[in-house]
Amino acid sequence: MRLLIWLLRATVFVLLFGLAIKNSGPVELRLYLDAAWQAPLSLVILGSFAAGAAIGVTAAFATLVRQRRELGQLKRSLPSEKRD
Fold first, then answer.
1. For residue 77, what pLDDT is reported?
2. What is the pLDDT of residues 8-23, one digit of tens each?
3. What's the predicted TM-score (pTM) here?
4. Is residue 84 assigned to a domain?
């Protein structure tokens, strides 16, 4: 089973690497105040994915912290004999 998973990972890596090589042409990102940035398309896609993942992890972390705080408050509100 481990061999099958590693073969699947290797296949996905090779396919994505080939896609990145095929899409290495420059694209121009036009920003505010007439600023422009040129970069390879694969780099722009990777950067967009990384930014989205970072935003998602940050949002999940904020929710986790809030839930842990609420759980601690609920545990403190229990009678002392029922705490374990």
1. 87
2. 999 998 998 888 888 7
3. 0.59
4. no
pLDDT tens digits along 34-58: 889 898 888 888 888 899 999 999 9
Per-residue exposure over 39-55, b if at least 16 CB sit within 10 Å of its own CB, e if not: eeebebeeeeeeeeeee
Which tokens is 81 given?
A: 């004999």
Q: Which two tokens mark 80?
A: 């002392």
Tokens of 19: 């896609």
* 11 in a structural domain: yes
CA dist 33 → 30, 36, 68, 78, 82 (Å): 9, 9, 43, 57, 62
Q: Which two tokens stand for residue 52?
A: 């989205």
